Amino acid sequence: MSFMRTSAFVGAAFAVSLMATSALTTVAHAEPTVEVLHYWTSGGEAKAAAELKSEFEAAGGKWVDSPVAGGGGDAQATVLRSRVLAGDPPSAVQIKGPNIADWAEQGALADLNSVADAEGWDKLLPPQIQKIVKYDGKYVAVPVNIHRVDWIWANPEVLKKAGVDSVPNTWDGLFAAADKIKAAGFIPFAHGGQDWQDATVLETIILGVGGADFFNKALGDLDEASLKSDTMKKAFTYFRKFQGYVDDGASGRDWNLATAMVMNGKAGMQIMGDWAKGEFFAAGKKAGTDFLCVPTPSEHGYILNSDSIAMFKVKGDDKVEGQKVLAKLIMGEKFQEIFNLYKGSIPARIGVPRDKFDSCAIKSMDDLDTASKGGTLVGSVAHEILQAGAVRGAFLDVATEFFNSSMSADDAVAKLAEEMENAKD
Ligand code: BGC
Fold first, then answer.
1. 126 touches ligand 1 (CB under 6 Å)
2. 383 in ligand 1 pocket by Cβ < 6 Å?
3. Which atom of ligand 1 is nearest to the CA of 94?
4. Which of the residues 109, 190, 376, 385 could staple to 97 if both were Cys, CB 3.0 to 4.6 A apart?
């Protein structure tokens, strides 16, 4: 499958978005209303979410904003569960990966096929994304973006002062650079000690050390031999090394505060998905000069994360209409461009022009293409694409317990295999 943005697609997409606009103007009866439950609360995230709100309002809709702070979305997931249990689900919710199928299986999600068929979503979305947002052959969610998880964000001034010419492309090289950054008086890696951030770093190391097939076998198939292998032990050993380059204040720190440490020259690097780029942009920084983006070391790997808005079954013409209007807007070419320029991600929709995107986004598009053709594209566990629920929870637990103790790599792999196996249904 190719993720190439072709001009034929651009032309078709433009025609589709014109049709969508004229369809919106014919909605006259109920005022389209949506309540959107999301966790986009940092600087860059809030700008991206505000774009969706303003486009929805410009289309005549009423937007009820329900943000729940907390990176990675675990706090928001708790709110969602209690709202659904109380019989009062929000109409539109930021969820992803297998969570979408789980909610659909419980009969909680609305069927978006009338919009999807009219707008031709099957031609506008790559198969990997269709797999995520469809349940039983029907669309139950709309993808807003593709985030890449395996990135290093670096401060070029700090690297220069430390005598590091470029961000190395091997883990050993990276740690040697970290030694130099430390010796020059800076924090090598800005990090937030929260379970999902620990798991984010660990999964990039697992991909780097083991490659994509190993990643999928261990973390996707939960193959016991792979989970307990020497390769997995090596990954934990590197994770322990990484920990040595993190400052004492990391515990509990939010991811965007860690990004700010790179931005203001306290730290040299951060390993984080490209929502971090949204923070650099929100602060007026430029890619390539004020900050550098380099994939974490791996053989053409790419860890995919994708945000979607799922529509929950709700009553009331205004709400049902609101869901349709929102779904159309999200898949629109204009929205997919502007939202992702703020968010740090790239469009989920095929054919959005590349010209306004920065060099990191272009690299993400190209690398995604290479990885999807070469079989080195994997789904994130930390960000709920390859695994969700209890199995992902087990991965987070072991990552964070290891990070906050003196557990050996041998014990870590035994625990990982046991806890991930127990978490399977
Ligand atoms: C989400 C992003 C979000 C990040 C930090 C990720 O799991 O996919 O949209 O910006 O967490 O909260």
1. no
2. yes
3. 9
4. 385
3-state secondary structure of 168: coil
d(CA 308, CA 312): 13
How many CA within 13 A on the CB side of residue 238?
25
Nearest CA residue ID for atom 12, ligand 1: 71
Are 42 and 256 in contact, with CB atoms under 8 Å apart? yes
Parts of the chain belonging to CATH 3.40.190.10 = 3-147+306-363, 148-304+374-424
Ligand 1 proximity of 307 Cβ (cutoff 6 Å): yes
In tens digits, the chain (425 residues) has pLDDT values of 343 333 333 334 334 444 444 445 444 568 999 999 999 999 999 999 999 999 999 999 999 999 999 998 999 999 999 999 999 999 999 999 999 999 999 999 999 999 999 999 999 999 999 999 999 999 999 999 999 999 999 999 999 999 999 999 999 999 999 999 999 999 999 999 999 999 999 999 999 999 999 999 999 999 999 999 999 999 999 999 999 999 999 999 999 999 999 999 999 999 999 999 999 999 999 999 999 999 999 999 999 999 999 999 999 999 999 999 999 999 999 999 999 999 999 999 999 999 999 999 999 999 999 999 999 999 999 999 999 999 999 999 999 999 999 999 999 999 999 999 999 97
Q: What does the DSSP assignment read for 169-193? A: SSHHHHHHHHHHHHHTTSEEE---B
- Give the residue, by CA position, lying nearest to ligand 1 atom 10: 275
Ligand 1 within 6 A of CB of 275: yes
If you measure from the C-alpha of residue 149 to the centroid of ligand 1, how many angstroms do you get, rounded to a whole number? 10
Architecture of domain 3-147+306-363: 3-Layer(aba) Sandwich (3.40)
In this structure, are residues 296 and 150 in contact, taking their beta carbons and an 8 Å threshold? Answer: yes
Closest Cα to atom 8, ligand 1: which residue?
Answer: 307
Q: How many whole angstroms from 349 Cα to the centroid of ligand 1? A: 19
Q: State the Cα–Cα distance between residues 286 and 293, nearest whole angstrom.
A: 11
